[in-house]
From TrEMBL:
One of its GO terms (cellular component) is plasma membrane. Its main location: membrane. This is ABC transporter permease. Coiled coil: none annotated. It is found in: Cell membrane. It is a multi-pass membrane protein. GO terms for molecular function: transmembrane transporter activity. The chain crosses the membrane at residues 39-58, 70-89, 119-139, 151-172, 201-222, 252-271, 283-301, 308-325, 331-347. Residues 1-20 are annotated as: Disordered. Keywords: Cell inner membrane, Cell membrane, Membrane, Transmembrane, Transmembrane helix, Transport.
């Protein structure tokens, strides 16, 4: 009697959750590296072009100026990166910069104590803490409305943009605060410019703050559970919630971080221009978003790095400075900067489409390879 053995059934080997997560992380890392590589190449090309067009472009003094301006945008962009990684947006950081400057200016001017004729002049460190705290408070309000009430980030932060700008106008009452920022020796509130407008080792203090915050942000995103939670909730919020990620808490905290970064920039800027003005911080939110996007972050969330964001800020800074040096009209500067942002988003989208199609082809090929020959012929 002849016995025919039936072909053994081929069962696809289930992929472990750890393996799937590792695969996704490798994909994210590769995508970020490609975007950062393009941003770095763009930076090199910008430097090469404007260095050819102007002999003063790579002058040490101009490089220090560029670094100082880049630092302001980069600090804001680090906070914006946290928000965008979660799939959100914060349009209020620019007005928070202005509001922080107005609060600091009024504190230097002195506070009228109620029910008395006395005026209180806080020390510099108190002014710094209160001013940065105002930025954090604005971020806390944004995070509370977005995370607890589940309101749209765009609407909440757009409304807060107007609230912050209006409060700035109220505090300044149409007047710039200049001389009061230096403080008075007899009141013990001097030294603000000596610290926040200083240049340790030849670099502006804003650059050192940028470096310190970039290191802290990198540690937070790469080495802490918060960073893993942030990437997970940005990639798939529902799946992250089912996996035990405190999605609401993460969403609330990122807006506090963004507001705190805006408060720091507000202090650095009034030290830079020696004045608290009503228009301080206008359009800063757009430059911060642009730096994050050019640096390879996805507006849909779940992808982006500190390194790429810093590179994106330098791309914008070197481009803007080069356009000024070669005498390009300010109106055309806005056109060119906007075109660069659109190009960065378009390239990112094309890359995502190509990756999705490649992943689909690989998945189909894997299914065909695991399907028995008898089943395919049938």
């Amino acid at each position: 009697m002849t016995t025919t053995n039936a072909p053994a059934e081929v069962t696809p080997r289930p992929q472990s959750p750890a393996g799937g997560l590792a695969s996704r992380l490798r994909s994210i890392t590769l995508s970020s590296a490609l975007m950062e590589g393009r941003a770095l190449l763009a930076l090199v090309l910008i430097i090469a072009v404007f260095a050819t067009l102007s002999d003063n472009y790579l002058d040490p003094g101009n490089l220090v100026t560029i670094t100082k301006q880049v630092a302001f945008n980069a600090i804001l962009a680090l906070g914006m990166l946290m928000v965008i990684l979660n799939g959100g947006i914060d349009l209020s950081v620019g007005s928070t910069v202005g509001l922080t400057g107005a609060v600091a200016g009024n504190l230097f001017r002195g506070l009228d104590l109620p029910l008395t004729q006395a005026i209180m002049f806080p020390q510099v460190w108190v002014i710094v803490v209160i001013s940065v705290g105002v930025g954090a408070l604005v971020g806390y309000a944004n995070g509370l409305l977005i995370s607890r009430l589940r309101l749209a980030p765009f609407i909440v932060t757009l409304g807060m943009l107007y609230v912050g700008r209006g409060l700035t106008e109220v505090l300044l009452n149409g007047q710039n605060i200049t001389n009061e920022l230096r403080g008075q020796e007899g009141l013990g509130n001097t030294g603000f410019f000596e610290v926040f407008a200083s240049r340790p080792l030849g670099l502006p203090i804003s650059a050192w703050v940028m470096i310190a915050l970039a290191i802290l942000a990198s540690i937070l995103l790469v080495r802490s559970p918060f960073g893993r939670w942030l990437y997970a909730s940005g990639s798939n919020e529902r799946a992250a919630e089912l996996s035990g990620v405190p999605v609401t808490r993460v969403k609330a905290r990122i807006y506090v971080i963004a507001g705190t970064c805006a408060g720091i920039v507000g202090l650095l800027q009034i030290a830079n221009i020696s004045s608290a003005t009503a228009d301080l911080g206008q359009f800063y939110e757009l430059n911060a978003i642009a730096a994050v996007v050019i640096g390879g972050a996805a507006l849909s969330g779940g992808r982006g790095t500190v390194r790429g964001t810093i590179i994106g800020a330098f791309v914008i800074g070197f481009l803007a400075n080069g356009l000024v040096i070669v005498g390009v009209s300010p109106f055309w500067q806005q056109v060119i900067t906007g075109a660069v942002i659109i190009l960065a988003v378009a390239v990112d989208r094309v890359q995502q489409i190509a990756q999705n199609r490649g992943a689909a082809r690989r998945a189909a090929a894997e299914v065909r390879s695991k399907t028995p020959a008898a089943s395919r012929s049938a």
